[in-house]
Input
Amino acid sequence: MSAAPGARATRGGDSLISDHALLGGRRGGAPATSSGSIDWWCPERFDGHSVFSRLLHPDAGHWSFTLQGLTARRRRYLPGTVILETGRISAEGSVVPQPDTPLGAPRG
Output
């Protein structure tokens, strides 16, 4: 596999940095791969303590979901928004996780 110019593999070696898209709102974000892995996440603030940090080391934590019998993946921005929808499709059905923190949600 050859990478696009300027792209580099993460230290984990399984994802190109260019394969990540930022999921998040105003206070925090999580780079997620097209295969469904969240390799970095600071839940409270962008500059806070990370919960997942596989971008820095292959043995560090991450979160991912899979669908048995996966046949296709789909990523698209919802029309008129900056919300990235990432879906998985199999012969049995599909999974499309939905965001649970709208941009206008009050702070707790």
Remarks:
- The chain has two domains: 11-64, 66-96.
- Strands lie at 20-24, 29-33, 37-38, 40-41, 52-53, 63-64, 70-77, 84-90, 94-95.
